Backbone:
């Protein structure tokens, strides 16, 4: 009964957050734009349109993702949501009255909304963890490879998981079952198939939360289609290529967005170009060979963020934390992702897409493929500026995890998913940790393997 009440209170709290945003918008419209109000149904339609915008954008940015994201991440989601929804309705209302409305009223509404949303999200977050204390958690592993890394990742979610047991699958059966009995959540890492099957069944029977650190085959099965042979379900792993209409639409979107982006950011790009040239008198545009669909090579364009002689030793390497090769201007444009703007030319010319796996340098890709042969699967589609790995991973995400994320994108591709990823990219720009380099002494992102 306590759990049901907590769930109801949590739902009511989220509903109050949503309706507070709506009420502030309605009051603000009455105060600042009384001359633009419509007949009753007209105002209702405008309010419903605004509500739809807030709901959709908050879902895209995971504004209600309490328990699975930090409070700072949720607050950022809501700030971006309100900016997007208010900006959208501002232009809609301006079109309806056939004139550009005074912007100051919308700014005041936005500021007041943000001022109330921040404490409300903090209170809802606190309520969530009070009603949902951290689960007693066990990690059962088959091999110790990357075990410390994954244990650290789970332990970091201290509000959600409290790791009490880390045990090998080789432990006594009675001990394994006893640990599962005393845990609420169980993580499985690299468990051999036969043992995994009966452990899963035991967890399912006893209503345990099960989490799997996936293998490559797990990723493919997770994105598989389902068909029936008589009364037998069959998973279909081979995904068909997008139809010609979808491919044409994706290319059309790439052209429109790249052209629009180049027009909007032209003055910003000119300013960056002047700043880099003025700093050391060397070329502002950095050209580098990368790999795209089918293993084809192309020249990628970026604003130069490092010294001109950054790789004079001839060794291709990723950026490390605190890399002294990065110039002062480079640190600013890398943190804000502005160094990526020239890649809009790559998209316009057709060598890249807006959304797709990040293109690797051929030398680094070759190193990764020696350890992870499936890494080449990322080149089944055209390389992109943004995608799953860029949004859910980081610059220093391991190549195996990057592969998993990119395969998930490839296997679940849709135009709507592309649009969602483009919008989510805006949020990533404000998260500085996403550009964090690899550890000192590494030339790639393969953790300890290349030390």
Residues:
């Amino acid at each position: 009964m306590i759990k049901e009440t907590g769930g109801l209170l949590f739902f009511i709290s989220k509903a109050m957050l949503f309706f507070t945003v709506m009420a502030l918008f309605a009051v603000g419209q009455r105060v600042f734009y009384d001359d633009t109000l419509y007949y009753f149904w007209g105002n209702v339609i405008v309010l419903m349109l605004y509500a739809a915008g807030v709901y959709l954008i908050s879902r895209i940015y995971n504004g209600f993702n309490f328990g699975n994201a930090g409070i700072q991440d949720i607050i950022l989601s809501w700030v971006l949501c309100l900016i997007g929804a208010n900006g959208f309705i501002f232009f809609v209302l301006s079109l309806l009255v056939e004139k550009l409305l005074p912007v100051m009223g919308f700014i005041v509404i936005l500021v007041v909304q943000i001022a109330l949303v921040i404490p409300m999200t903090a209170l809802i977050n606190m309520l969530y963890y009070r009603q949902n204390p951290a689960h007693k958690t066990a990690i059962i592993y088959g091999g110790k490879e990357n075990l410390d890394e994954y244990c650290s990742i789970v332990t970091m979610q201290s509000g959600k998981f409290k790791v009490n047991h880390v045990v090998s699958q080789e432990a006594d059966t009675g001990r394994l079952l006893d640990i599962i009995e005393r845990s609420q959540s169980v993580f499985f890492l690299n468990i051999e198939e036969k043992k995994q099957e009966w452990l899963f069944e035991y967890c399912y029977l006893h209503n345990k939360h099960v989490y799997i650190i996936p293998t490559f085959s797990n990723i493919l099965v997770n994105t598989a289609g389902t068909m029936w042979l008589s009364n037998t379900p069959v998973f279909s792993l081979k995904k068909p290529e997008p139809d010609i209409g979808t491919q044409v639409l994706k290319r059309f979107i790439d052209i429109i967005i790249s052209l629009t982006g180049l027009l909007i950011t032209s003055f910003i790009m000119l300013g960056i170009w002047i700043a880099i040239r003025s700093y050391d008198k060397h070329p502002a545009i950095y050209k580098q060979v990368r790999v795209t669909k089918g293993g084809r090579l192309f020249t990628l364009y970026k604003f130069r963020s490092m010294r001109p002689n950054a790789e004079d030793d001839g060794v291709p390497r990723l950026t490390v934390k605190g890399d002294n090769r990065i110039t002062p201007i480079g640190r600013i444009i890398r943190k804000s992702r502005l160094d990526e703007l020239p890649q809009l030319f790559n998209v316009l010319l057709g060598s890249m897409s807006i959304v797709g796996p990040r293109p690797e340098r051929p030398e680094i890709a070759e190193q990764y493929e020696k350890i992870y042969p499936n890494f080449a699967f990322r080149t089944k589609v055209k390389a992109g500026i943004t995608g799953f790995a860029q949004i859910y991973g980081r610059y220093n995400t391991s190549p195996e995890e990057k592969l998993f994320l990119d395969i998930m994108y490839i296997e679940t591709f849709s135009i709507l998913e592309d649009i969602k990823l483009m919008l989510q990219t805006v949020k990533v720009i404000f998260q500085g940790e996403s550009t964090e380099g690899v550890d000192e002494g590494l030339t790639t992102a393969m953790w300890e393997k290349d030390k």
Observations:
- Residues 2-32 form the longest helix (31 residues).
- Residues 1-5, 437-445, 447-451 have pLDDT under 50 and may be disordered.
- Residues 2-131 form one domain.
- The chain has three domains: 2-131, 135-213, 244-435.
